[in-house]
Design a protein that fits this description.
single chain; about 160 residues; alpha/beta; Nucleotidyltransferase, domain 5; about 20% strand; globular
């Protein structure tokens, strides 16, 4: 069974195009100590994708670093206002985190996000540019991208 699965993945054109080498990073990496659920979360935007029939083109990915729980939200626009609306929804279901890690994209580095963080007592930490390894949600994004591409290709063949 394992060999059949491995052979299938090796022959799958979509898998070969979308999956990346799983080599470990060079050198030593520091570790982030997370004391409990929803104390540190990370967020990232994926997209733009081809617009859905409903006009959605982006996905906001939010991950709790303690439990590794991931939530994804479809967005029509990737801006501070829309992201704050989604984060408000997330905070209403879970605890307010002490820290939020994001990249330095304009959708996260703006007055709206800063005001939201201040209002909720959250420290917004920005990952250094061009250092994707520092943002753990990037691993989740890789898996999601593979799944989305495979789904879109499959649905375009069927429909």
């Amino acid at each position: 069974m394992f060999r059949d699965t491995a052979d299938y993945v090796k022959r799958c054109e979509t898998c070969q195009r979308t999956k990346v080498e799983q080599a470990g990073p060079a050198g030593l990496m520091g570790h982030r100590v997370v004391k409990g659920p929803w104390t540190v979360i990370t967020a990232d935007i994926m997209g733009p994708f081809p617009k859905s029939r409903s006009g959605f083109a982006y996905i906001l990915v939010v991950q709790d670093l303690f439990t590794k729980w991931v939530e994804c939200f479809a967005l029509r626009a990737a801006n501070g206002k829309k992201i704050c609306e989604v984060l408000e929804e997330v905070l209403s279901r879970w605890e307010t985190p002490r820290f939020v890690l994001t990249d330095n994209g304009t959708e996260f580095v703006n007055e709206t996000i800063q005001a939201f963080a201040t209002e909720h007592g959250i420290t917004h930490t920005i990952i250094p540019p061009y250092h994707l390894q520092a943002n753990p949600v990037e691993r989740v994004n890789r898996v999601l991208k593979t799944m989305i591409v495979a789904f879109l290709e499959r649905s375009s063949r069927v429909g």
